[in-house]
Amino acid sequence: MSSSLRRAGLPAFLLAVLIIAATAAAGFLANRAGAPLFADAAPIFGFWYPRAGVGTPLALLVAITVITWGPSSALPWRVLLAAGYVASVAWMLSLALIDGWHAGVVARLTDWPEYLHDVPRVHDIGTTLATFTDHILAGQPDSWTVHVSGHPPGTLLFYVWLERLGLGGGTWAAVVTLLVAALVAVAVPMTARALRDEAAGRAVMPFAVLLPGAVWAGVSADGMFAGVTATGVALLAINRGRWWPALAGGALLGFGLFLSYGLTLMLPVVLAVLLRTRDWRALLFAGLSTAAVLAAFAAAGFWWLDGYHLVVQRYHQGEFANRPYAYWVFGNLGAFLLSAGPLAVAAVQRGLRNRGALGWLVLAAAASVLIADLSGLSKAEVERIWLPFAVWFAVGGALLPRGAHRWWLSLQAVTALAVNHLIATNW
Known about the structure:
The chain has helices at 3-8, 10-32, 55-69, 77-96, 101-104, 125-131, 146-149, 154-164, 169-181, 184-195, 198-209, 214-217, 221-237, 243-256, 267-277, 280-300, 304-317, 325-339, 343-353, 357-375, 382-385, 387-390, 405-422; strands at residues 46-48, 423-425. By secondary structure, the protein is mostly helical. A two-stranded antiparallel sheet has the order 1-2. The radius of gyration is 21 Å and the shape is globular. The protein starts with a helix and ends with a strand.
């Protein structure tokens, strides 16, 4: 293998393909043998369904545009951020439209396991918070639906607030969720710029836009989680001695703890940023606002640890708890690489070599993924569940040789297009 191919990261790409292929082959054989994977297209949670749709040409157009102009854009920084945000919205929406407007967008959050199913049950927010844990376990006539019971009450409240603002129903919920998820394309480049320089932020931008995880981020609450937490981390990174970004960032990250129990694993990413900026005032202000969010929920009657312990019990009440750990501890990695993209392997490889701020950020995200995987609390569906960690591997774009950017962006885009045209993803 030539040195130029090695520098471009071809070995990392081949390793990613090997992991994905191995987990897919093992999943196929396990399903054939009758193992309870509960994922027909393992390691992806979904089933094989080759198709195309109105979003197909739109997605191709967005991908070609970003690949062609993204790496060489000379737009002013703030204009570039706005362009990246718009491109991210277009990328996620076009991928969703492969299944059409109704099935791909409107109906995603209205199915019976989803949050909108239980929004009409919330008449008084205070009462809901105080009694939330009473309805987590299955087998009760008033149990929360699957996704509501599996998360803290923050996500349900988010959609209740939308409904009370006059933005109720599947269409508005989907649109707002997508718009929040697209904040990743602004937050991750801003963080890279704050930790290193503007050139790094510019290099990261197109990779944050063409994230293969956009297949799941577009119209899923997990995409919204990624947007909220990434924005919180970016605010900590840009703080630079000011009080308000750290205060706002801490509040967002604190609220993130009430969106998903798994977002406690954002801690390595947060620490990677704070330790590199060495802004102890930011740590103080962020800690105060995070504590204020925790205190507010506790005062309203919801104690995080009580909810977490009940969710673990709820998980073991369902058949998905029977998924074999021996397969998924490996299969999860294949699913994750289809969400973060093959770039994730190259990012970790270069992070190990380059222990600068961005290298440590990638390694912190990798640590979050590794802990989540080994815990056994995530068996399948991690292509969606780990989106808040996956977005940080886009930072690897700034660690690659500049001449390899378009090649890697093409691989990322092809990954997303292949998954969304061959597999009907569900959650």
